[in-house]
Amino acid sequence: MISLRRALLVSIATLIATAAGAAGIELPEYERVELPNGTILLLSEKHDVPLIGLRADIRGGAVADPDDRGGLASLFAGLLEYGASDRDAAAFAEAVASVGGELSVSGGLESITISANFVSRDVELMLELVTDMLQRPALTEEEFTKLRDRSVNLIKAAKGSNPGNLLPSYGRAFLFDAHPYGNPIDGSETSLAEITHEEMLSYYEDHVGGDRLIVAVVGDFNAVAMKQRLTAILGNWRAAAIELDATPAPEKRPGRRILLIDKPGATQANFWIGNVGVGIDYERRAELDIANTVFGGRFTSMLNNALRIESGLTYGAWSILQQLAAGGFVAISTFSETETTTEAIDMSLDLLESLRDSGIDNPMITSARNYIMGQFPPRLETASQLASQLARLELFGLDADYVNGYVAALEAAAAEGIADTINEVYPSADDVAFVVIGDAAQLREPLAEYAPVTEMSIDAPRFRVTTADQQ
Q1: Cα R_g (the chain), whole angstroms
Q2: If exposure means fewest CB atoms within 10 Å of the residue's CB, which of 133, 241, 355, 375 is most exposed?
Q3: What's 282's domain CATH number?
Q4: Enclosing domain of residue 109
């Protein structure tokens, strides 16, 4: 009894400490500077440890890929790590490793991101390497060919051994169709194979420049000196040759439809069920995060509890919430043995309707709120994390209150507002797109009970279904 009481007191104390810690979370003060060429600098001093974190975002990303050249932005991002200025790929990697630094590049839907983390004494090397990446990338034909071919082979390997990793690409392509949010971030076998080295060089001139650049630096430095240094090395950089178009808002599609990707002989099926959601500037963000945490955002969620813990139909079930500049999507994602796929789908749809009809009660709200508050502060601790957050806010046109006011918004979230949010964002079970990867011979007829089925082979070298791909 004593041990139980002690455990209860420890739990209460932990929750109080978590809430108190989260309540004090705010972004540090920072300076925003716009250079004459349009480059945005975001600078914040942080002297607790001798580290500097930098994040540079180039606006664009996969949404700006040409229709038949999906993966171009991501391929370019990957190629930036393979040499710049007078350093080839090996020398560039050695320059980073020799001082224990971290430097990486990634391509996303709406930007290309460079992330760096260096000891403050090596700040000049960090700035030199990042600037060389941006202004003097090697982009050699040899490294381009190797990276393009490797990217194609990675897609083929995933189709063979882990097709579930490709569900997001198939899901977005089917849901958004020709909309830019349906573009495959990493490309497809067809689109990658068609990209030439000359097109890569043209992409750099057309889509990369000072007018698209955001640079956030947080850490152990003098802000005045850093501003002067960055202005000197970036302030006169040319603009991208092509103006970046705004992404139109996607529209929800009513009704049900199914894409079945045939993988003959598969013993399990991966499925994704979703519809268009809301953008990153959605006003009831806290209510939505609480709802998604309860529904499928943690191990003890409605989806995982029902499909894994209680029924054993899967090893994991999630609800995915992606919010972008002009919209996004909400989806259920899981897998099951072929024989139990429709049972898992039925359970998923029933839970979706239960979420919309009944909402979530106060104990669930409190639990989800505490969970989020416990996860939130560790994301804003290091210089690199803070630089990433500042750049992200700038990229999406958000102000500091997006972070500073988040805990208060979580504390104010109540059942009625959460219920309204659920019914606004989460689709009815009658208005969803299904994407299923599995053995079509066994799944075709049972899936047809839900909606009209479009089929394509897992061997089709693209993610957007075409007339030629349909079986």
Answers
A1: 24
A2: 241
A3: 3.30.830.10
A4: 31-234
> Rounded to the nearest 5°, which phi and psi values hold at 53?
-110, 135
- How far apart are the C-alpha atoms of 371 and 283, rounded to whole Å? 21
Nearest-10 crossing angle of helices 141-161, 197-207: 100
Q: Which of 111, 121, 17 shows the shortest CA–CA distance to 65?
A: 111
171 and 70 together in one domain: yes
- Report how many domains make up the chain: 2
Give pLDDT, residue 469: 59
In a domain, 217, yes or no: yes
Same domain for 411 and 268: yes
Question: Closest by alpha carbon to 61, among 185, 242, 147, 154?
Answer: 185
CB 330 within 8 A of CB 275: yes
E strands, 63-153, where?
102-107, 111-119
Q: Whole-model pTM?
A: 0.92
223, 45 Cβ separation under 8 angstroms:
yes
d(CA 108, CA 287): 26
Do residues 214 and 328 share a domain? no
Pair 196, 261 in one domain: no
Tokens 């013993």: give the residue.
Answer: 267
Query: Alpha carbon of 239 to those of 135, 243, 244: distances in Å?
Result: 11, 9, 11
pLDDT, tens digit, for every residue of 436-471? 999 999 999 999 999 999 999 999 999 998 766 555
For residue 436, the surrounding DSSP H or E stretch is strand 433-438
Structure tokens given for 181: 């949010």
Around 177, how many Cα atoms within 13 Å sit in the side-chain half-sphere? 7
Residue 106 reports pLDDT greater than 60 = yes
Nearest to 433 by CA among 451, 421, 458, 446: 451
